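Fold tokens
===========
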Amino acid sequence: MPIEVSELCYSYKRGTPFEKKVLHEVSLRIEDGEFVGLIGPTQAGKTTLAQHFNALFVPQQGKVIVNNCDTIDKKANLISLRHEVGYVFQNPDYQLFAPTVGEDIAFGPNNQGLKSSEVKRRVSKAMDQVGLDYSSFCRRDIFALSGGQKRRVAIAGVLACKPRILVLDDITAGLDPRGREEILNVIRKLHSEENITIIFISNSMDEVAELAERIIVVDQGRIAFDDTTRQVFKKPSELKAIGLELPEIMSIAERLVLCGYNLPASVLNLEEALQAIAENLRQGQVSD
């Protein structure tokens, strides 16, 4: 279920004295099964871009075509599209509204006109996918949950509609380290076991480096970089110039190079760094 964006332009308050152009002739293509990190400085336009993927916004100029569905076509079934392209917001309170966990997750499948038995099956499976025990959480008060649990419920509500693409908008923001890691493990599992295409919007370079196979960098409403994760992070000076920091492990690796370690240009995670350091020590390459 590919996403194809061609010459996309979008402005807020269009046609008024306060018009602000947010996207400038953006073109890209995302293939089935990809894990894409979508990053950029604050107000770069990344969320506005992502909300075109399931027609929360529709193009003012250009096109967005998802699985051959042109989102500006008046005959396009946008309700069906939004079931296929699930969007999870940064703040789960924007998505959660039913009294209990089970009712909230069942909302989407019920709107799909499914039989009650199928709705229950989907709710149970979605809860299992995000690590929530059905018997313990199905009747739990939605507003008595922790921040991490609310995010899991929001993801489960989208998964229950069986999307083929999942857009995750900075969903680990504000979580403690344990909650963050639990959510990241859920995302890893969804991608590896369900082969869901994931578009991961994040302000955390560490998370993007850890998870994404490809990174799209948005700056001032334009695509600044679009390449593999390793290739994008090989451009530290360019990323810093637009206001993005390197992943912490890469910053540490840079300091180790200054101390005499011979490390690769882009070390993306702790495991790679430890392997490189161990190799240096074995070969006696560390200078005094």
User: Anything to note?
Assistant: The chain has a mean pLDDT of 91. Residues 3-242 form a domain with the Rossmann fold fold (CATH 3.40.50.300). The radius of gyration is 21 Å.
